[in-house]
Amino acid sequence: MEILANYPLKKLNSFGMDVSAHRFARFSSADELQALLRHRREQGEAALPLLVLGGGSNLLFRENFSGWVLKNEIGGVEELHEDADFVYVRAGAGENWHGFVQYCIGRGWGGLENLSLIPGNVGASPMQNIGAYGVEIKDLFWDLRALHIESGRVETFTVGDCHFGYRESVFKTKLRNQYVILDVTYCLRKKPVLHTSYGAIHQELEAAGIGQPTIRDVADAVIRIRQSKLPDPAVIGNAGSFFKNPTVPLAQFNSLQQQHPGIVGYPLPGDKVKLAAGWLIEAAGWKGYRKGDAGVHPRQALVLVNYGHATGADIFDLSEQIVQSIRSAFNVELEREVNII
Asked: What is the pTM of this model?
């Protein structure tokens, strides 16, 4: 058990923020995590903030972290069992998400292909109910095991326990900072059902001359689309989509549509409409904006970027300006998808 002081985190967060952690350690099993949490208590530092770090792809550090950062490196992929239609696959929370998706595609297990190339690790997938191109984790989730930080007890959570919502779960609301996800089990199809109608997937497949796509074809189409729109964090610091798509009442959408005929919205149950946050931000003139090294990506207005030496405060201040701008222009409240630390 190696615990390091004032540990640099620049290479462990996709924004590339040059910050450090008061204490830092890695764990690759529940036993190692329990030992670290015991040591933290024994050192009289249990009251200090605790951050469990996965891929570092959905957070923004505004300053040095004054507490403990524990890096989740629990790996492994295991086929638990199967029936005539499904295979149940467990993955360690520290597994790279895209690598896990590719592993499943390679074995013909369907369901995850639309979620290709999403940055981060497996543990984050249920925590924020990741989704893309018409598919969300809740559609494929079976259960997860998580360790209760206070007691050290390992518990199992099913779909109903997780209270999945749009980019959220019980681990971001009621149980926030109370559990560490250890592994996740997914229910994948042996006879895949493809989802190609959302976004540009169908057009991408047509352009490639693919009339009867496989899950590999769909995954490759998603990868091409994402690479054409989204910057690589290894090249330019970012955390993917910075804002959630806001939801408004149908009456408000109809009013907005009269004022802005091109506005993009998706009908939801209960006379609600989900607006495209990227459209709002672009329409307000922010796409391609840059001040110093903090900016809005020129190809995707949902993505805020660090061109090299922006601080977390710089990025956060830019996001606040955008929130206020959208509120003023459209009377719509944007919510950040990225966790602000």
From this structure: 0.90
